[in-house]
Amino acid sequence: MHGTPLSGLSSRTATCLLGLAALLLATLSPAQAAAPRVTIFAAASLTDALDAAIADYEADHDVDIVPVYAASSTAARQIAHGAPAELYFSANEQWMDWLASQDVTLAERTDLLNNRLVLVAAPGTSLDAFTPGAGRPIRALLDDDQRLAVGNPDHVPAGIYARQALESLGEWQALEPRLARADNVRAALALVERGEAPLGIVYRTDARASDKVHQLGTFPADGHTPITYPLALVDPPASDAARAFRDWLTGREAMAVFERFGFSPAAAGTP
User: Fold this and answer.
1) Residue 100, exposed/middle/buried by CB under 10 A (0-12, 13-18, 19+)?
2) φ/ψ (deg, to 5) at 227
3) Which one of 120, 131, 173, 229 has the fewest CB atoms closer than 10 angstroms to its CB?
């Protein structure tokens, strides 16, 4: 007759071994060992800077930060439909306001970053530096069959700012039919990088992140509403890990990362 592996041991020894085994299993259990996870939904234009900030933060904290990048409009709609975001980092205040109006509770909202709008050209362009609004119109840089890449002005923040900028220059009506509308600003940038559109309107930070486009010039800041990036906790009470990461993002260490990628601190962004 075969016995169990513990059958030859005293009951006290067996109990001790079972307790030790249970402790060891608990210690090694992935569920027990896993770091807390924080999901942040963020504007596509934040991709490079936020990835770098997350890497710095995770190096000093036992936490797993999971970024989800999309147009701010897309991210806001996903959150409103129940996507499990603990933080929302938008490229404009409009979509943060919209999300707050959708019975989604936001907390500790702060305007964190500013950006600028620039005109970029495809690789190998022979165009010289060009300042929008300084005389020659943007449409003069396009051949009859060429298009201008932008984030979709109907909902993408970069496209909304682009429309405002073109309206202020008196070029919206002429250029609207010639827009190559992209789902987010990085998609608009990609159209120019691939040479599918000779020109594009993107953020300064996007132009700096790419070695495949040539920045021609910066749009006048007074031609559109300020490009502001608000940050907020979603559906609090937030986890301690989410709250700690939010607080770190508003501090000087994170701001140094964002500035390295071309962002500037918002007027009332950091404490």
Assistant:
1) middle
2) -85, 100
3) 173
Measured distance CA(58)–CA(38) in Å, rounded: 11
Give me the CATH code for the 117-218 domain, please: 3.40.190.10
What CATH number does domain 33-114+228-265 carry, 3.40.190.10, 3.40.50.720, 3.40.228.10, 3.50.30.30? 3.40.190.10
Query: DSSP string of 222-255?
Result: GGS--EEEEEEEESSSPPHHHHHHHHHHTSHHHH
Predicted TM-score (pTM) of the model is 0.84
pLDDT means per 10 residues in the chain (271 residues)?
Answer: 43 45 46 80 97 98 97 97 96 97 96 97 81 87 94 97 97 97 97 96 96 93 96 91 97 97 78 36
3-state secondary structure 70-120: ECHHHHHHHHHCCCCCCEEECCCHHHHHHHHCCCCCEEEEEEEEEECEEEE
CATH topology match: 33-114+228-265 vs 117-218: yes
Domain map (residue ranges) of the chain: 33-114+228-265, 117-218
